[in-house]
Structures are given as structure tokens and as C-alpha cells.
Amino acid sequence: MTATASTSNSCQTKRILVVEDDQVLARIYWKNLIAAGYVVELATDGLQAVHLAQTKAPDLVVLDLMLPGLNGAEVLAQIRQNPGTAHLPVLLFTNQFIGPVLTRARQFAPTKTLSKTDCPPARLAAEIESLIGPSIRPSELVPPAPEAPPEPPAQRFHREAPALRRELIRWLEAFLVRGNGDLSRLTTLAQHVTNTHRLAQAAGFALTAHFAKALEQFLADLLNDPHAITPAARHTADRAVRCLDGLLALPEQPTVCQFSALTVLVVDDDAIAARLNANALSRVALRSECLTNPLVARQRLQTQTYPLIILDIEMPDLTGPQLCRELRAMPQHAHTPVLFVTAVDEFDRREQALQQGADDLLAKPFLATELAVKALTLILTARAG
């Protein structure tokens, strides 16, 4: 045994940093470790964990992987890269035993990895003692304070939103400049979107939770099918993440999501294509009115309003661009979002589509979740404007 290991295992007061975003679990770990004689610091997000690791000089870190702000792999990376904390024993305590976050965490040499399921809180102290030895609680320390009530979910959301916004934009920009061969940046971006969804859902902020969930599924589909990471998909991700950033910035978060009350107009002379688009929209609770005759659609637009209009470009009698020009002349549709869906190459037609009054273009083939996310983004962006 080395001199360092011998010193660390000697009987003295030892400090543990527990990093766990589930506050109920965190308090259980805290009580068990306090009872075992350890001094315990708690962190409920990745940014707080890095700060406490650098300022509280813990003897060991118990680190969850799935965290808001920074995930466990990012926390471990910063611990290992800082000379003052590089030596710290780190016990990964998680139920995530597959996936890119765990793979990245292992690159930074965690001291040990334990399953929460196989190692209940009552056994955690024994695992820690096996790594750094027992602890004697100094008599001058006051007894444990009464258990504080958990932080209200809405308060936690607003506290963590600024850090989440920074990380979302940081990893979005990293993803946009990296080629398709490296999925690590997209993986991290997706994890931050997942954290946003969980926080918003726990706080009861229905609109932000709904949008984040849709974006989470789209990014998951891209990770499962890297060939789908086209320039169009990157464009969709870019606009969607920036839309989510705008939602996080709202000082008063909506507690009601009314997308199910909205009806999108889909105009495509191919009835099967129109139905596929409608099915994609239904994934995010948007209803659809599908028309296969653009002339009928023109008549309908004279009397009906919609939050979004989806147009095929190549249609008989009246093309999508022609219909778009005509509806833009109608006062009720001067600012209605219009999305062109086409089988032609996007770079050949995107600028033409915008010149005809459309807000965006989606080139086939595309993921159903991409259309769903793009639809939500256009609707929310129009309402914010």
C-alpha cells in the first residue's frame, strides 16, 4: 500500500461530496453517511458539484451520472483535469450501465462504479469505508440539522434555467460545427434537453415540457440513425434549441399546453403523403386538416385561419409557391407560418421558398419527429414574434 493510500485510510474525520439531483435520495444518503461519522456536502446539479469539489476539499465524491447543468461524465472530467482535485476518489453511483455518458465517464478513471439498485443507501457507507477508511466525527461539529423541506420544483426550475440555457447553446454550437462521425456532442446536447424536459415537467410548466419532450425524441432519433443528420436536420435542431432557449427565458412559465386545440392545414395532392404528415403532427398533439386539392385549400383559406400551413411544392392546378403568394395577400394570413415540404434538394429551393413567402422548407425524406419539432418551432416562434 502506498503512503498516500495509508494516510487516506487512517482513522480521521473525512468529508464526502454526494452529487445527486433527486433530493429525496440525496437526503437519505446524507443521513446514512452522517450516522457513519462522515461529514457530508450535497450537490444537486453538475455545476454545483464542480464548485464544491474545488472549495470543500472532499476525501471522496459519490457521483450520479444523470444530472442537470453538467452530466456526471462532464463533472468527472473537470475533477480529473483540475490539479487540485485530480487525485480525488470518485465513486460512480448510478443505474446507467450502458450509453455514451457512461462510456465517456469511464475515460476519466472513476475509482469504482456501483449500481444504485444493487447497493442501497444503507450499504453506501460500507463501500466508501472500503475505499478511504472509516471516519471519526469531531465533537465540535453540531448534530445534523432537522431535515429541510425539498426545494419546490418551480423554484428549482428557475434556479437552474440560466445554466441550462448556457449549456444548450454551447452544445448546440459544438454540434453544428462537428461532422457526423462524432456523436458525442449531439449526445451531450440531447442530455441537456432531457434535463430541461424533466425539470419543466416536475415544475408543472406544461408548454416548455411538451416542446422539450418533442425535441428530445427528435435528437434521440438522430442518434439512432446518424445518416439522418442532414443539413436540413441540423437547421431544424438549430432553430428548435434556440426556441427552447427562448421558452426557458420566460419569467412566467405557462402551466397549460394547448397544442391539442390547434389544427394545422396540410395541403398535398398525394393523399398518402398528407396522411403521413398528419401522423407526424399527431405525435406532438397537433391536429391536422388534410386537403389534396390546392384550389379547395385556397377557398378554405379565405374563411379559415390556422396556426401553421404545410404546403407541398409540386401540385397540379396551383403549386405550393403560387398558393403561398396568394395567401400572403390575405390579411388574416399575412403572418401565418408556412412550411414547404418537397422532394427536391433543399439547397436548390430553400431561398426560392423564402422568396415566395414561406418561413421554412423541409426536404424529403425526413424523420417524422423532425416535421413535428419544426411545426412546433414555427408555431411558437410566430407567437413570440
What does this structure look like?
This protein has 385 residues and is of the alpha/beta class. It folds into three domains: 130 residues, 3-Layer(aba) Sandwich (Rossmann fold), CATH 3.40.50.2300; 96 residues, Four Helix Bundle (Hemerythrin (Met), subunit A) (Up-down Bundle), CATH 1.20.120; 126 residues, Response regulator (Rossmann fold), CATH 3.40.50. The chain is 51% helix and 12% strand. It is built from 15 helices and ten strands. It has a five-stranded parallel sheet, with helices on both faces. The radius of gyration is 26 Å and the shape is elongated. 41% of the residues are buried.
For the termini, the CA-CA separation is 66 Å
Assign the CATH class of the largest domain: Alpha Beta
Examine the secondary-structure arrangement and name the CATH architecture of the largest domain.
Answer: 3-Layer(aba) Sandwich
Mean pLDDT: 86
Low-confidence stretches: 1-8
Would you identify the CATH H-level superfamily of the largest domain? Response regulator
Radius of gyration: 26 Å
Shape designation: elongated
Q: How many discrete domains?
A: 3
- Percent of residues in β-strands: 5-15%
Widest sheet: strand ordering = 2-1-3-4-5
Helix content: 40-55%
- What is the CATH T-level topology of the largest domain? Rossmann fold
Which structural class do you get from the secondary structure elements?
alpha/beta
Q: Give the H and E element order.
A: HEHEHEHEHEHHHHHEHEHEHEHEH
